[in-house]
From TrEMBL, chain A:
Location relative to the cell: Membrane
Keyword ATP-binding included in the entry's annotation: no
Annotated family: Belongs to the GerABKC lipoprotein family.
Name of this protein: Uncharacterized protein
Domain Spore germination GerAC-like C-terminal as annotated: residue spans: 200-362
BP GO annotations: spore germination
Source domain of life: Bacteria
One Pfam family in the UniProt entry: Spore_GerAC_N
Coiled coil: none
From TrEMBL, chain B:
Signal peptide annotation: none
Transmembrane portions of the chain: 262-284, 304-325, 393-412, 424-449
Membrane topology: Multi-pass membrane protein
Family: Belongs to the GerABKA family.
Source organism of this protein record: Domibacillus mangrovi
Localization per Swiss-Prot or TrEMBL: Cell membrane; Membrane
Designated name of the protein: Spore germination protein
Keyword Membrane recorded: yes
One Gene Ontology term from the biological process aspect of the record: spore germination
One GO cellular component term: plasma membrane
Lipid metabolism keyword on record: no
Major place of residence: membrane
Keywords attached to this entry: Membrane, Transmembrane, Transmembrane helix
Taxonomic lineage from the root: Bacteria, Bacillati, Bacillota, Bacilli, Bacillales
Length: 365, 510
């Protein structure tokens, strides 16, 4: 008993809590923006939130920028300005300017992948123009900018207009040594007149730098081709001379067949079975089976056309976002090594086949 | 040491040896003179003020009556002893007496014990014995529902301070010839009767033997609180968890006895001690069985959930605020940060202070008379709670955490368990404040290792989880199956008869 009392009392003399990080002392940031016009000059901008309480909601307290040679150096320089350590653990968005990713993006992300408490579900967003103004500019009625950008991207993801990505998902194509799959990230622009941000489409990457971009409509098409339809996906096509229709894709099935001959370029057969419903169809009379057949046929052709156009664009950007390289590698690793995928990919022969089928036309007929 | 008189419900299971140590050597066999004998006993009792002596004549011979007037029923002395003796035609006094309990004693020490238990001693001139007649007066309160073990439905009676009444309550419910009641006299000064009660056909004889062994080895001069008895027979007294079940409810006591467990009663206390028990038995309430299966199971699960809230929530909060705030969703984290930002203390101090404050309020509420107790609860809970937040000493979240924890700890249907959970959370709070979630996990590991090691009357305390028994786990541990599904008794007490029920719903098979 005496032994235990002695032990217990001596415990009080021990120092403890050396790795304690008390919530009240932390500078928790929810968003950061990176501008790196050249490799040795990285400007980091962060938005410090003002924690709310019952009487006042959470707001953005302060925007701070600093420039360093590495991201970590910029972070320390910001630390000098704001007093205590920055905590990136709850980061929701990371904005990177388009200009910065024309060269290697990896040095901008490395410190985030190295840190154990880094927030892996932060959204990576590529910005049109500089990233810093996205935090500096005034946004109409949004107290927390990071929160707004995050929800903007989330809802865009649900509508299948931007690819689903975050720090973690972005990493795997980045670390892929064989270059069999390429990364992509949503593209955002700032609308100064309306004081809002706007989804512009997708930034395409080849290996670690940005090589091209897709519009919103093309992104939807690409994601359908990738078989990554989210909650909703809407497409609009002209039907008659001055009338267009909008459909909602309910279900899409993909079949990918890859032929890798011993010599000559590889070919890919992509065939899609698509079931849709019309949500906007001004010409009406979809009760007629004949007309439905005609619409199906017309749509199949239109979708095929846009898919081919999108395919051309991503091949041009050397960005294998469909992950065809991975499949070729899986099918014939020796041949894949021979091929030098970076040059072989743009030469790839892609055949697309689409079969659309109307399953519902709404209440009017 | 006590002497066993097993198997009979006799009030005369007195032991001579239990009381010898402290008496002077004047004791010994009686003489032929009644006056001398009474004198001897009076001397042994040291001229106690309530000791009364009365002379009477029986068949022209003098007799003496000796009793303690405070614990005998004087009307019964008059009707059952004095009147028959003066009116009888019988030759022997024993035949004339109309008391139901009487015993002849030839030894002054034995007689003294009987005297102290409320017997009337009769001495006759020319006989070297005394006759002890049982005319005790019992002062008991009426049978009420126990304050701390209320149920919504089911029986509303409870044990009282009289051992005889308590046994009567059990006998009334259980008319089985297998019901064994054995008495022991414990406490050199208090001479308290302790009863060991079990069902012969169900309880494992090894356990009964072990229980008797433990009770027999008790050597103490005072024994009237269940706490003494518990400390003496419990396996590990220095554990935060109680290894006996204390109850004041006859239905609960009998249900446990029918599971092959053994009951211990001490005269003068309404609490029944049940051994061996399991951790899970302490979370079973008679309400579960009075309720239907779904609500019964739901509230049982809720109780286990509350157990975890009661021991873990403050530690969890400290760990989050001090180490791992990343586990909070982004919307919540800024709200919480806003709450704690202006608090001048580290979370452990903040929570400890509030926990201690709540314990003080609770303790004060118990000691005070009911109307003031409620006032204290309101003053303590609302006023201090609100003021401490407005003053900025403690964050609102802490108050929520501490209040939730306090409420959750009161859910346990056993008072000892509820106290245990309130104590266990303090070490867990400290480990959490030192090492965050790691510390919490370490603390929990220690707790569960201890739970697995613990024994109650030599039987595993954490059964049926360790050792694992799927059938018992599903039957009546976390959930409560309908009564017709509880075919076997729990096996932790190794009952002689395992089958408890079979085919009660045969009517359904038409």
């Amino acid at each position: 008993m005496k032994k235990w009392i002695g032990l217990g009392l001596s415990c009080l003399l021990l120092t403890g809590c050396w790795d304690e990080r008390q919530l009240k002392d932390q500078n928790i940031i929810l968003g950061a923006a990176i501008d790196a016009p050249s490799k040795e000059e990285i400007t980091l901008t962060i938005a410090l939130p003002q924690p709310g309480n019952e009487s006042q909601p959470t707001t953005t307290k302060q925007i701070v920028s600093a420039t360093g040679r590495t991201v970590q150096e910029s972070i320390s320089k910001i630390d000098h300005k704001i007093g205590s350590g920055l905590q990136m653990g709850k980061m929701q968005v990371l904005l990177i300017s388009k200009e910065s990713v024309q060269h290697d993006i990896y040095p901008l992300l490395d410190t985030l992948y190295r840190n154990a408490v880094s927030s892996l579900n932060a959204k990576i967003i590529i910005t049109e123009g500089e990233a810093e103004p996205f935090f500096r500019n005034e946004l109409e009625g949004e107290p927390l900018y990071s929160h707004y950008y995050n929800s903007l991207i989330r809802s865009a993801e649900a509508l299948t207009i931007v690819p689903k990505t975050n720090l973690q998902l972005f990493a795997s194509p980045l670390f892929d040594k064989n270059d069999g799959e390429a990364a992509m990230a949503p593209l955002l622009a700032f609308n100064k007149e309306e004081k809002t941000a706007e989804v512009k489409g997708t930034a395409l990457f080849d290996d670690k730098h940005m090589t091209g971009e897709l519009s919103v409509a093309e992104t939807t098409m690409l994601l359908l081709m990738k078989d990554e339809k989210e909650k909703e996906a809407a497409l609009t096509y002209p039907v008659e001379k001055d009338k267009s229709m909008t459909i909602r894709v309910e279900e899409i099935k993909r079949k990918m067949k890859i032929h890798v001959p011993k010599d000559g370029p590889a070919t890919v057969d992509l065939s899609y079975q698509l079931r849709y419903r019309t949500i906007d169809y001004p010409p009406d009379h979809l009760g007629d089976k004949k007309e439905v057949k005609e619409v199906d046929k017309k749509l199949s052709g239109e979708i095929k056309k846009s898919m081919e156009k999108t395919m051309d664009k991503i091949q041009e950007a050397h960005s294998d976002v469909l992950g065809i390289g991975l499949r070729v590698h899986a099918k014939d690793p020796d041949r894949f090594k021979q091929l030098n995928w970076d040059t072989a990919y743009p030469e790839l022969n892609v055949k697309i086949n689409v079969k659309a089928e109307l399953i519902e036309s709404g209440i009017t007929f | 040491m006590a002497v066993w008189r097993s198997g009979e419900d006799s009030l005369f299971s007195l032991s001579a040896t239990a009381n010898t140590k402290h008496q002077n050597s004047d004791g010994g066999p009686f003489s032929l003179s009644a006056a001398e004998n009474t004198k001897q006993l009076t001397a042994l009792l040291g001229q106690s003020g309530d000791l009364k002596e009365r002379s009477f004549l029986f068949k022209n011979a003098e007799g003496k009556l000796l009793y303690l007037e405070t614990i005998v029923d004087s009307i019964r002395i008059e009707e059952s002893i004095l009147r028959p003796l003066s009116e009888t035609d019988m030759q022997k006094a024993e035949e004339a007496l109309t008391v139901s309990e009487r015993q002849e004693m030839a030894d002054s020490e034995k007689a003294l014990t009987a005297l102290l238990q409320g017997k009337v001693l009769l001495f006759f001139e020319g006989r070297s014995i005394c006759i002890a007649c049982g005319v005790e007066r019992f002062s008991t309160r009426s049978i009420m529902e126990p304050m701390n073990e209320k149920v919504v439905r089911g029986a509303h009676d409870g044990f009282v301070e009289s051992l005889n009444t308590n046994i009567a309550l059990i006998r009334e419910r259980m008319k089985s010839p297998g019901l064994m009641i054995e008495y022991v006299q414990l406490g050199e000064k208090t001479n308290t009767r302790v009863a060991i009660i079990y069902e012969k056909e169900i309880a494992n004889p090894e356990l009964v033997e072990e229980m008797k062994r433990r009770v027999n080895s008790i050597d103490i001069d005072m024994m009237f609180d269940p706490g003494f008895l518990e400390d003496m027979v419990e396996d590990t007294t220095l554990s935060p968890l109680p290894q006996v079940l204390q109850t004041e409810r006859p239905d609960r006591a009998i249900a446990n006895m029918m599971d092959g467990r053994i009951l211990l009663f001490g005269d003068g206390s309404p609490t029944c001690i049940i051994m061996p028990v399991t951790f899970f038995a302490l979370y079973q309430s008679p309400d579960d069985y009075n309720d239907r299966t779904f609500p019964g199971s739901f509230y049982r699960l809720l109780r286990f959930f509350s157990f975890f809230i009661a021991i873990l929530l403050p530690g969890f909060y400290i760990a989050i605020v001090g180490f791992h705030y990343e586990v909070l969703p982004p919307d919540l984290i800024l709200k919480m940060q806003g709450g704690v930002q202006t608090i001048p203390f580290p979370p452990i101090i903040e929570v400890l202070a509030m926990e201690v404050a709540i314990e003080i309020i609770r303790e004060a509420g118990i000691r005070l008379p009911t109307p003031i107790g409620q006032t204290i609860g309101i003053v303590g809970g609302l006023v201090i709670g609100d003021a401490v937040v407005s003053a900025g000493f403690v964050s609102r979240t802490t108050v929520i955490v501490v209040a939730l924890t306090a409420i959750a700890s009161f859910v346990a249907p056993s008072t000892e368990m509820s106290t245990a959970t309130r104590l266990i959370r303090f070490p867990l709070m400290i480990t959490a404040s030192l090492f965050g979630f790691y510390g919490l996990m370490f603390g929990l590991m220690f707790l569960f290792i201890h739970l697995c090691k613990l024994e109650s009357l030599g039987r595993p305390y954490f059964a049926p989880m360790a050792p694992f028994n799927l059938k018992n786990v599903l039957q009546d541990t976390f959930i409560k199956q309908p009564a017709w599904k509880m075919n076997t008794r729990p096996l932790d007490s190794r009952p002689l008869k395992e089958v408890a029920e079979s085919d009660s719903r045969e009517w359904k098979k038409k």
